[in-house]
């Protein structure tokens, strides 16, 4: 448990003094906790992991390592307890139509989507659309959306940079594996940061997408639940795409009105 706490503290680039001040404990006590000389209460572990912004799933792992039961449940999205969440998410997705929107888990597996997302999946290989559909793989795979992304190198840099930051923040080995896989897909060279991670456009990266003879342009936003106490809920993300130019907005509006 102490080793895990130390790893998270170092990952957040905090000294023992800085963390002890934030958590309102003595540096000596924190040192004893990290070295195993002191066994903290479950409340203390939760307090420290909160200050370190440790994801809920990983907080449970630290608690288990300390000999305590997990503090945060992990409820399936299909469970009866999640009925309200499912209904709310589906209302959000439906309300965003005709623009594309989807819900993904922490590994970017597709959980829900509205009808507008068909604009992106049309023309993708059937194998990539078999559940569980991975949104990022579908985006950059040469048999997926990639051949129709006009600014593929730019979009690829954005996706890889975002994935690298998420993997670094959560220390999730599956995300690092996914980053390695997606980095191997063709799509142009990207500028890299000091850690080798791709650096996207610092302002905003549009998704310029070829649909038939048209070029559509989108920007995206990501929404997460603000105060989750459930692991599943904490890991859900709603990705919504908006038209980035009047031509795209007009085209999608025509699709909505005429049914084309």
Automatic annotation (TrEMBL):
<dbReference type="GO" id="GO:0003677">
    <property type="term" value="F:DNA binding"/>
</dbReference>
<dbReference type="Pfam" id="PF13560">
    <property type="entry name" value="HTH_31"/>
</dbReference>
<dbReference type="Pfam" id="PF17765">
    <property type="entry name" value="MLTR_LBD"/>
</dbReference>
<dbReference type="InterPro" id="IPR010982">
    <property type="entry name" value="Lambda_DNA-bd_dom_sf"/>
</dbReference>
<protein>
    <submittedName>
        <fullName>Transcriptional regulator</fullName>
    </submittedName>
</protein>
<dbReference type="InterPro" id="IPR001387">
    <property type="entry name" value="Cro/C1-type_HTH"/>
</dbReference>
<dbReference type="InterPro" id="IPR041413">
    <property type="entry name" value="MLTR_LBD"/>
</dbReference>
<feature type="domain" description="HTH cro/C1-type">
    <location>
        <begin position="5"/>
        <end position="59"/>
    </location>
</feature>
């Amino acid at each position: 448990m102490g080793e895990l706490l130390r790893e998270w503290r170092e990952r957040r680039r905090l000294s023992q003094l800085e963390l002890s001040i934030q958590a309102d404990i003595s540096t000596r006590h924190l040192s004893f906790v990290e070295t195993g000389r002191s066994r903290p209460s479950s409340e203390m572990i939760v307090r420290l992991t909160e200050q370190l912004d440790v994801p809920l799933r990983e907080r449970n792992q630290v608690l288990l390592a300390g000999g305590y039961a997990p503090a945060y449940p992990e409820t399936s999205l299909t469970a009866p307890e999640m009925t309200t969440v499912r209904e709310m998410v589906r209302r959000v997705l439906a309300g965003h139509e005709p623009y594309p929107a989807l819900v993904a888990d922490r590994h970017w597996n597709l959980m829900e989507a509205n009808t507008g997302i068909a604009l992106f999946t049309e023309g993708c290989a059937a194998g990539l659309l078999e559940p569980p559909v991975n949104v990022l793989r579908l985006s950059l795979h040469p048999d997926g959306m990639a051949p129709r992304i006009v600014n593929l190198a730019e979009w690829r840099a954005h996706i890889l940079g975002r994935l690298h930051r998420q993997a670094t923040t959560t220390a999730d080995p599956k995300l690092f594996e996914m980053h390695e896989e997606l980095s191997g897909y063709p799509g142009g060279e990207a500028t890299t940061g000091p850690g080798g991670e791709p650096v996207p456009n610092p302002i905003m990266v549009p998704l310029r997408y070829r649909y038939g003879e048209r070029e559509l342009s989108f920007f995206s936003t990501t929404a997460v639940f603000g105060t989750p106490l459930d692991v599943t809920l904490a890991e859900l993300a709603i990705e919504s795409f908006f038209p980035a130019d009047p031509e795209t907005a007009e085209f999608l509006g025509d699709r909505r009105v005429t049914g084309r």
